[in-house]
Amino acid sequence: MPQSPNDPIAQSRFLRACRREPVDATPVWLMRQAGRYMAEYRELRRKHTILELIKAPELACEVTLQPLNAFDLDAAIIFADILPPLEGMGLSLEFVKGEGPRIHNPVRTPQDVARLRVPDPEESLGFTLEAIRLVRRELESRGVPLIGFSGAPFTLASYAIEGSGSRHYLRAKGMMMADPRSWHTLMEKLSQVVGEYLLAQARAGAQALQLFDSWVGALSPEDYRQHVLPYSRRAIQIAREAGAPIIHFGTNTNGMLEQIREAGGDVIGVDWRIDLSAAWERLGSDVAIQGNLDPVALFAPWPELKARAQAVLDQAAGRPGHIFNLGHGILPHTPVENVRRLVDFVHEYTGQQRP
Ligand code: CP3
């Protein structure tokens, strides 16, 4: 979607910060801001599974708006998950209660890789694209931008191969090390699926795109360079065509921060394991940064939470291009009152500093 200079959403704090333009206060949103810590979400989840919520555009729209109605957030993120794109490729996905995601037919052999499809996102993920169109209609009058997202090729490959979350990535790294041809074919397919899905989300109305490479910090810098970077770069290249800013997020990325940057993105998302000022030193001033409060800080008493939020903002030091966020997704049982106070504090503190 083209962003005209007169469009109020294009001039929102969040999109201005993505472009490293000055803002009246630091924009803030929270990864996984729609979810189980909210009573409104749990209420809907009593009646529907998570995949049902994702696949019914009206319900996905409703869940997307829940945190926007409760808090003064500067961006919405479409309610979906990183794993449904794997279904379109031919994998069977289930969220098992109390255990997390399961792929019932994980990718283990060269034949498994060869069988994977690269479907058109309108056909395989039309429900999320439709949800984006619905949310955009609701957010237009509120002046709030919408973020679309996808898992990055490595993080998706790890679920596709392991069949679940993993601690050591024995099978995923195993394929990478022992059968690099299959790894390459798999990552090529994933980069196309991811890039086209992101592009389709921007065309459906998402004004920014986030690539979640949540588990990439499990890799050595050399493995990242050789076996992951080219595919993340390819996905970003495809997605860029729509012109929406891209946030490239990973956790535990201290050893590969420059390479993440090299793969692409207008904004780099970092977690709390790196100091924000150190991250900026390494990345340079011509990129925006998103982060990086420890999500556990939201469980602390308010004075402690406030001090930690202030420390993040002081490290950002008013540089243009800071988007306040957590370093990873908000946790279940997070006290809602602390979320409200945190969001308001970010605006108050930075609005005062830079009137
Ligand atoms: O940020 C948002 O509010 C948008 C929605 C969103 C969800 N998942 C909804 C969800 C986003 C951006 C994600 C991303 C996601 N999903 C990631 C990358 C980000 C991260 O946190 O690392 C990953 C690795 C997944 C995979 C996934 N989905 C797992 C491991 C689980 C189960 C564990 C858990 O946290 O419950 C999910 C389920 C899931 N996706 C939930 C939500 C709100 C909770 C499930 C529920 O309602 O029961």
Strand content: 5-15%
CATH-level-2 architecture: Alpha-Beta Barrel
SSE ordering: HHHHEHEEHHHEHHHEHHEHEHEHEH
- Using only CA atoms, what is the Rg? 19 Å
Rounded to the nearest angstrom, the distance between the terminal CA atoms is: 31 Å
Average pLDDT value?
A: 96
Please explain how this structure is put together.
This protein has one domain: Alpha-Beta Barrel (TIM Barrel), CATH 3.20.20.210. The chain is 50% helix and 12% strand. The protein has helices at residues 13-18, 39-47, 50-55, 57-70, 84-88, 110-115, 121-124, 126-140, 153-162, 170-178, 180-204, 221-227, 229-240, 257-263, 276-283, 302-316, 336-353, and strands spanning 76-77, 93-96, 100-103, 146-151, 208-213, 246-250, 267-269, 288-293, 322-326. Helix 9 (153-162) packs across helix 10 (170-178), helix 10 (170-178) packs across helix 11 and helix 11 (180-204) runs parallel beside helix 13 (229-240). It is globular, with a radius of gyration of 19 Å. Coproporphyrinogen III binds at residues 31-36, 45, 50, 77, 79-83, 95, 100-101, 149, 165, 212, 214, 328-329.
